[in-house]
Amino acid sequence: MQSYTFPDKSGKYGKFGGRYVPELLMPAVLELEEAYEAAKNDPSFQEELNNYLTEYIGRTTPLYEAEQLSKHLGGPKIYLKREDLNHTGAHKINNTIGQALLTLRMGKKKVVAETGAGQHGVATATVCSLLGLECIVFMGAEDIKRQKLNVFRMELLGAKVVGVSQGSATLKDAVNEALRYWVNNVHDTHYIIGSVVGPHPFPRIVRDFQSVIGAETKQQSLEKQGKLPDAVVACVGGGSNAMGMFYPFVDDKEVALYGVEAAGKGVTTNEHAATLTGGSPGMLHGTFTYLLQDEAGQIQEAASISAGLDYPGIGPEHSHLHDTGRVNYPSITDEEALEAFQLLAKLEGIIPALESAHAVAYACKLAKEMSSEQSLVICLSGRGDKDVEQVKAKLEENSDGEA
Amino acid sequence: MGKHKLENTLNELKATGKPLFIPYMMAGDGGINQINERIQFLEECGASAIELGIPFSDPVADGPVIQDAGLRALQEGTTLKLVLDEVRKQKESRNIPIILMTYINPIWNYGYEQFAKHCDTAGVDGIIIPDIPMEEEEDIAAALSNQSIAFIRLAAMTSPDERLEKIAQDSEGFLYAVSVNGTTGERQQHDKNTLDYLKKLTALSSVPVLAGFGISNPEQAKSLAAYCDGVIVGSKIVHLFAEGKQTEIKELIGETVR
C-alpha cells in the first residue's frame, strides 16, 4: 500500500511545487496534465514507451556489483546502477523519449528544450530525430564554448542550437529563453524540460519517466541479494536521476536515501550549487522550491565543475523530501568529485560523468560508516567521456599549482 | 487611496471618451533617483497611470528590451524596497495612480503582508504579477485585499472562455489584456483575433480593459483602443527613455490620448 501520494491535485509537494507561470502558458500546462493522465492510463502508450526503452535505449540497465570499489572501501557491498549504458550515455533519454511520445499524442510537431552541458539537449535531439519532430535547443553561450562537441552532436541529429547570451549565459538563462520561446510558440510546440523542475506537471512527469531507474534497481536488488539496499546515493542538480531513483523507495523507510549536491569550491564560498544546503525557498521557472538567491529575491549564479549540476534551483519534490527529512542532502566539492572520477576509472574501468562522480564521492564517505553485511547503490547517471578534456585540463592546472 | 483611487481615476478618464494610456517604465533604469522625475514627466505627457517595473534576474514574460533594462536597473542596485522608499517620498504631491509590475519572487522574499502594507504607505495603488495565474493567487490576493491595493489580473489570448470570465470578474483597477501570444516587445501588427478577444473581454469586464504587449506607435494604440478602453506601452517607452528621447515619448502619449 503506497502511503506517499505527492503531488496533490494542484501540483504541490507539501508547500513546494505549483504552477507559477504566465496565464498565457496555463492552457498548455493544463493540456499537458490532461494528455499525460490519459497516456499514463493507456496501455498502448505504455507498451510503445516500453518498446523504445528496451529496443532503442537498451534497458534494462545493469545493477553492477562493484567488487573492487567495495573491497577498496572495506565497508558495504556497493552496486552501480548503470544509467551510463543507456543510448546517448546518460539517464536523460528515459525522460525525453516519454515526453516526445507525449508531444506526438498532443498533435504537436515541434519541441523546444534547454541544455546546460548538452546531455539533455543531445537526448532531446536524438528522440526528435527518431520520431520526426522539429527540435530547437537553447544553450548558454558560455556553455556552447565549453561543450562544442555536444553542439555538433545536436546539429548532426538535426536540431537547431541557439546560443543564449542574456544574463550569465548558462543553464538558468537557457531555461528562461526556452520558456520565452514556448510562450511565443505554445500553439504548436511542446517544451521538453530536462529535469524535475518547472511548473506542474513537469516535475511529476519527469519523475515518473525517470522512476524506471528506481523500479529496476529495487527488483534487481531483490533478485541479487534477496533484500533492498540499505542506502541509495544519487547526485542532484535539478534532480531528475535522483528523483527517478528515490521515488520507488520513498515508502521503504529502511532504505536510507542520499541526494548529493554540488558544493563547488565549498558551500561557504559564493561558488557552489548546493541549493538545499545554502539556499532558501522562492519561485523560479514556474515552481516554488529552494533557490540560491539574495535577500531581495534575485536569483544568484550557481557554480560547479559539473555543468549538469550547475543550476540555482532544485526540483520541488526534493525540497519537500528535504524538509520532511525522508532524504538526506549532503554536498561534495569539485575536488572530491575529481578524486572520485579518477578512483572509479582506476578501480572499475568505468569513467563516470562528473555529475555522477559527486554520488561516487559521497558513497565513499558513507561506506566508512557502514558494515560488510550492508549494501549501497550508487546511481551512475551518466558516462564521463564528455568530461575527460575538462578533467585533463583541471588536473594539469592542479599539478602546475603544486609544482 | 489604492484600488479606489485607481478605479476612480481610470473611470473618470474613460468617461471623457479618450483612450487610456498607461506607460511602463523600468524602475532604476537610468538610476534610482530618476524614478520620481520620470513618473512626473509621464504624468505631464498625459499618462492615465504609471506602471512601474521592478527588475528581476529571470523575467520570463519579457522580451529583450525590458530584460536589458532590468539588468541595468539591477546593476544600479535597484531593489523592491528601494523603489517603495523612493515612491513614498512623492506620495503627497503626486496625483497619478502608481501600479507596480513585479514577478512574484521579490514579493515572496519581502513578505506578502509587509509588501502590501508598504505599498499602501508608499501610495502604490495597484499590482501586476505576470507569473501568478489564478491557481496560485490566493495568498497574495488576500494580502493585497487587506490593504485595498488593486490586484490587476492578466488575460491571455490562449485562455479559454471560462478562464477569461473568471479573470475578468476578479480583476481590480483594470483588466490587463495581453494582446500577443508571446513576450513583451514591439510587434508590427495585431490581427483580427486580437480585436475579437478585446471585444469579448470588454463585454465580460466591469473594470476598464487595457491592451498591452507589442504596442509601439499611436496608430496601433488607437486601433486597439477602439476595441477596449486603452493601452499599455512598455518596451517602446523603456527604449526611448534609454535613448534619451523624451520628446518622442511625449508625442507617442500625446497623439494617442488626443
Automatic annotation (TrEMBL), chain A:
Pfam families in the record: PALP
Keywords associated with the record: Amino-acid biosynthesis, Aromatic amino acid biosynthesis, Lyase, Pyridoxal phosphate, Tryptophan biosynthesis
Residue list for modification N6-(pyridoxal phosphate)lysine: K92
Named cofactor requirement(s): pyridoxal 5'-phosphate
This enzyme's EC code(s): 4.2.1.20
Gene Ontology MF terms in the entry: tryptophan synthase activity
Pathway annotation from the record: Amino-acid biosynthesis; L-tryptophan biosynthesis; L-tryptophan from chorismate: step 5/5
Domain Tryptophan synthase beta chain-like PALP: 58-382
Entries under PROSITE patterns matching the protein: TRP_SYNTHASE_BETA
Superkingdom classification of source: Bacteria
GO cellular component: cytoplasm
Subunit structure: Tetramer of two alpha and two beta chains.
Family label: Belongs to the TrpB family.
Annotated function: The beta subunit is responsible for the synthesis of L-tryptophan from indole and L-serine.
PANTHER family with a match to the protein in the record: TRYPTOPHAN SYNTHASE (PTHR48077:SF3), TRYPTOPHAN SYNTHASE-RELATED (PTHR48077)
Protein name, UniProt field: Tryptophan synthase beta chain
TrEMBL record, chain B:
Catalyzed reactions: (1S,2R)-1-C-(indol-3-yl)glycerol 3-phosphate + L-serine = D-glyceraldehyde 3-phosphate + L-tryptophan + H2O
InterPro entries: Aldolase_TIM, RibuloseP-bd_barrel, Trp_synthase_alpha_AS, Trp_synthase_suA
The UniProt record lists the keyword Lyase: yes
Protein name: Tryptophan synthase alpha chain
Listed GO CC annotations: cytosol
Family affiliation: Belongs to the TrpA family.
UniProt function note: The alpha subunit is responsible for the aldol cleavage of indoleglycerol phosphate to indole and glyceraldehyde 3-phosphate.
Keyword field: Amino-acid biosynthesis, Aromatic amino acid biosynthesis, Lyase, Tryptophan biosynthesis
GO molecular function terms listed in the Swiss-Prot or TrEMBL record: tryptophan synthase activity
Active-site residues from the entry: E51, D62
Enzyme category, top tier: lyase
Keyword Lyase: yes
EC number(s) stated in the UniProt entry for this protein: 4.2.1.20
Highest taxon of the lineage: Bacteria
Biochemical pathway: Amino-acid biosynthesis; L-tryptophan biosynthesis; L-tryptophan from chorismate: step 5/5
Assembly: Tetramer of two alpha and two beta chains.
Listed transmembrane segments: none
Organism per entry: Oceanobacillus oncorhynchi
Pfam assignment, any one: Trp_syntA
